[in-house]
Design a protein that fits this description.
The protein is globular. The protein is an alpha+beta fold. A hairpin with a 2-residue loop joins strand 2 and strand 3. Strands 1-2-3 form a 3-stranded antiparallel beta sheet, covered by helices on one side. Helix content is 29%, strand content 33%.
């Protein structure tokens, strides 16, 4: 079960096939559009989109936008 998003705007992952074995990833979060690159298969694009949303939701919940210096 996915935790509820802290933002009021719905988030979405959009994967479009632009050519054979070429998929573009676009993520909508908090009313903003993020173009997240090109992937060789739909599964990889979806996984990257889920990770991106997870990171953005964490940043929104914690108010943190950057990593601390020296941390990996």
């Amino acid at each position: 079960m996915k935790p509820a998003s802290p933002s009021t705007a719905p988030s979405s992952i959009i994967v479009d096939e632009v050519a054979p074995q070429s998929f573009t990833l676009t993520v909508m979060f908090d009313g903003r559009r993020f173009d997240c690159g090109t992937y060789i298969n739909r599964a990889a694009a979806m996984q990257a989109g889920r990770l991106f949303l997870q990171r953005k939701e964490g940043e929104a919940a914690n108010g943190r936008t950057k990593r601390k210096p020296g941390r990996t």
